[in-house]
Each structure stands twice: as C-alpha cells, then as structure tokens.
Amino acid sequence: MKKQVQGFTLIELMIVVAIVAIISAITRLIRREKVQSQPFDAMDVMMETAQRLERCFNSYGSYNNASCTVPASINSTKAHYTVAVTTTAATYSLTATPVSPIQLNDAKCTTFTLTNTGQKTSTPAGNTCW
C-alpha cells in the first residue's frame, strides 16, 4: 500500500499570501494615520495655551505677568510633543517639538510654532503641520 503524500495546494498557499498582504497593508495605513494625526495633539495644547496667554494679556496688560500661571514647557495630551512657551511683556511664542518615537520619524512636522500675532510656521518650511 502506497502512502499518500499530503501538502499544501497552490490555492491554499495563495490564500495565505493574500491574507498576509491584506494585514500588512492595514498595518501600514494605521501607522501612517497615527503619524498624520498626531500634530493635532500638540495643536490643541498650543491653542489652549494661546488662549490662556491672551486672557492674561487682557487682564494684566502683559503676557509674562507673575499672576499668569503658564509653565515654560507643556506636554501634549498624548505626550507626542513638548510645547515650549516663550513670553515677554508684549509677545509670546509656542513651539511644539516631537518627543515620541512615532513623531520623531515624521519628516513633515519636525517642529511647529504659533506666535501672539497668529503666525503659524513649521520646520521644514512649508507649513505642512498646520
């Protein structure tokens, strides 16, 4: 009696390859979406901080008044960015710098800045973050 050899058919192998390709494509899309959506994490903190600084200026006539409690550095809600706060009596500048591994690899939004005049800039140039 001959022993019948069993193995994978070509169809079964193609099904496995197709499933692996689909899972890989979904994983790439999720990673890309995470990188593209993270700047909003810092933008929220920057806008809230700008509002606090504007309230301070309206109340005390200065962005850096001692009665205003705005820290020099703020972590974004999801901790993907650190926002540096620089103030003088008449101006402020908020600069977001990535700190999480996901964002450190994002070449489009290395840093981005918001000033008291509403100017929004980013590095590299082109305002791709805003």
List keywords for this structure.
130 residues; 5-stranded antiparallel sheet; 3 helices; alpha+beta
Describe this structure in words.
With 130 residues, this protein is α+β, with helices and mostly antiparallel strands. Helices cover 42% and strands 20% of the residues. The chain is built from 3 helices and 5 strands. The termini are far apart.
- What is the chain-wise order of helices and strands? HHEEEHEE
Task: Please state the CA-atom Rg, rounded to the nearest Å.
Answer: 25 Å
Distance between the termini: 74 Å
The average pLDDT score comes to: 85
The fraction of residues in strands falls at 15-25%
Structural class: alpha+beta
Q: Biggest β-sheet, characterized?
A: 5 strands, antiparallel
* Count of extended strands: 5
Which bin fits the share of residues in helices? Answer: 40-55%
